[in-house]
TrEMBL record:
Residue span(s) of domain Cytochrome c: 30-121
Keyword Transcription regulation among record annotations: no
Keywords from the named record: Heme, Iron, Membrane, Metal-binding, Transmembrane, Transmembrane helix
Transmembrane segments: 158-181, 212-231
Cross-referenced InterPro entries: Cyt_c-like_dom, Cyt_c-like_dom_sf, Cyt_c7-like, Multihaem_cyt_sf
Stated name of the protein: Cytochrome C
GO MF annotations, alphabetized: electron transfer activity; heme binding; metal ion binding
Length: 411
């Protein structure tokens, strides 16, 4: 389900299921694993365990504050500060009155995050400049693989260029040798009339031009090219694959999602729970950029938008027609698809462009090939049995469950 063998920095921090799912109970290991996913999906943009980033280092937090204080702080820190809590007010003032976002996490989820933080105390860590801890093995491996592929492609291009240059040099050399040989032969006295005629003969381009066969071949090729281009133009009406508009603010997904491995859901907060993956508000940008690169000309554009109380006029890139229904949460949360399945290697894009065709045929082909995860889901038990009986072990795909019916997307 991953494109080009690339695992996104944006989504590698936690799979869709673990980002939205409650922390698993039943043991310290399970709580720590759940806390790891929740920490990377919600906290790692501003906090590290053993180093200060945008916010304070979290090592020893369970000793500094009781869990009964930490839970309300994570859920609504501004409320705790407003209550006059001495520790909260001091912390708020120490970090330049930077407001920590409120998180709709359960008590169990917050407890699992604390368990993860406690397990990581004292371990060496590398902190990214935007406040993201490095060490996401899946994302790193994916990026290294992508880099290796890019490097291999670069060498292939260089090799092809060298071969073309060598061929051109060979052709020029042969022409020069041919001319020199003609000059030598012209200086000989023992050539008869036939030899001289061959030596002095010239290619008759006019005869070639007047050839009916050549004219017919050229005419047919020209007609086929026109026909092909015409069909391609008609078929491409309404398609915007490769569309790459200039945005009002130069936001780099390569920097944020790739190098700093910021989870997609941190900015696109509804991608796992709503029909649409919302455009992030300027307030989300300010969670980091109230303290990071504050003098950047691009960041100042965000400040101006906030001061003027005007939304940033982002240019929409991926735009399905109104006649088609698409639900992000159904694909990311339920199906567990990575963002790259549709959006391509987003973590490598300086400027985002439409990677996939997003046509009806493209969607249908995916539904025909994509297997459904029916494990431990009793809803599918009878459907899978009927499918296996009729289709002799063929995979149970989205199409097998009615995913190619017109009413699934058009109603």
């Amino acid at each position: 389900m991953k494109k080009e063998g690339v695992v996104p920095g944006a989504t590698a921090a936690a799979t869709p299921a673990t980002v939205a799912a409650p922390a698993a109970g039943g043991g310290d290991a399970a709580a720590i694993a759940a806390g790891d996913a929740l920490f990377k999906g919600n906290c790692a943009q501003c906090h590290a365990v053993n180093e200060q980033v945008v916010g304070p280092a979290l090592a020893g937090i369970s000793k500094r504050r009781p869990i009964t204080w930490l839970i309300p702080w994570v859920k609504n820190s501004s409320k705790v500060v407003a209550s006059g809590d001495e520790y909260a007010v001091a912390l708020f003032n120490k970090f330049n009155k930077q407001q920590m976002p409120s998180f709709a996490l359960s008590d169990k989820e917050i407890t699992s995050i604390i368990a993860y933080v406690t397990s990581e105390e004292g371990k060496a860590s590398t902190v990214a400049t935007a406040g993201v801890t490095a060490g996401n093995a899946a994302a790193t491996d994916g990026q290294e693989a992508g880099g290796a592929e890019a490097g291999a492609g670069k060498y292939v291009d260089i090799l092809l260029i060298v071969l073309v240059v060598v061929l051109i040099v060979l052709v020029v050399t042969l022409v020069i040798i041919g001319n020199l040989m003609k000059d030598v032969l012209r200086g000989r006295k023992d050539l008869d009339g036939r030899d001289v005629e061959i030596l002095e003969q010239r290619f008759d381009w006019g005869k070639l031009y007047r050839s009916p066969m050549l004219r017919g071949i050229v005419g047919v090729v020209f007609a086929l090219v026109l026909l092909y281009e015409g069909v391609q133009s008609v078929m491409a009406v309404g398609l915007t694959q490769g569309y790459q508009p200039t945005q009002p603010i130069a936001f780099s997904h390569k920097l944020h999602a790739g190098e700093h491995q910021i989870n997609c859901a941190y900015c696109h907060t509804s991608v796992y729970k709503s029909k649409s993956a919302n455009i992030p508000s300027a307030n989300i940008c300010m969670n980091c950029h109230s303290q990071i690169k504050t003098e950047s000309p691009e960041i100042k554009k965000i400040y101006r938008a906030i001061e003027r109380k005007q939304p940033i006029q982002w240019v929409r890139i991926h735009n399905l027609p109104d006649l088609a229904y698409f639900n992000h949460s159904q694909h990311t949360q339920v199906a567990g698809l990575q963002c790259q399945t549709c959006h391509g290697p987003i973590q490598n894009m300086e400027v985002v462009y439409q990677y996939s065709a997003l046509t009806m045929g493209w969607c249908i082909n995916c539904h025909r090939e994509m297997p459904l995860n029916t494990k431990d889901n009793k809803y599918y038990d009878n459907l899978v049995k009927l499918h296996d009986t009729k289709n002799a072990g063929a995979p149970f795909t989205v199409s097998s469950n009615g995913g190619t019916e017109c009413s699934k997307c058009h109603y």
